[in-house]
Specification:
Blueprint: H1 18-30, H2 32-47, H3 51-68
Length: 69
């Protein structure tokens, strides 16, 4: 759920029902515009998970905890 932002960088499918998964995949296969939009958004979303970005967020959280004490 963190690596994929539902409707922005991909589609989260609730549960394990093969029919639901098939319907989701079928919908994506039929909608090239939606796939292209998800693909474009996914690039920006994935950038938030670079080593630099993750380390900066973690350091910021540590700083806020130290400042709060």
């Amino acid at each position: 759920a963190e690596a994929v932002s539902d409707g922005v960088s991909g589609v989260l499918v609730d549960g394990h029902d093969p029919a639901v998964w098939a319907g989701t995949v079928d919908g994506l296969l039929r909608d090239g515009d939606r796939r292209a939009a998800l693909s474009a958004s996914a690039l920006g979303h994935a950038a938030a998970f670079s080593w630099d970005a993750v380390a900066a967020r973690l350091a910021g959280r540590y700083r806020s905890l130290v400042d709060a004490s």
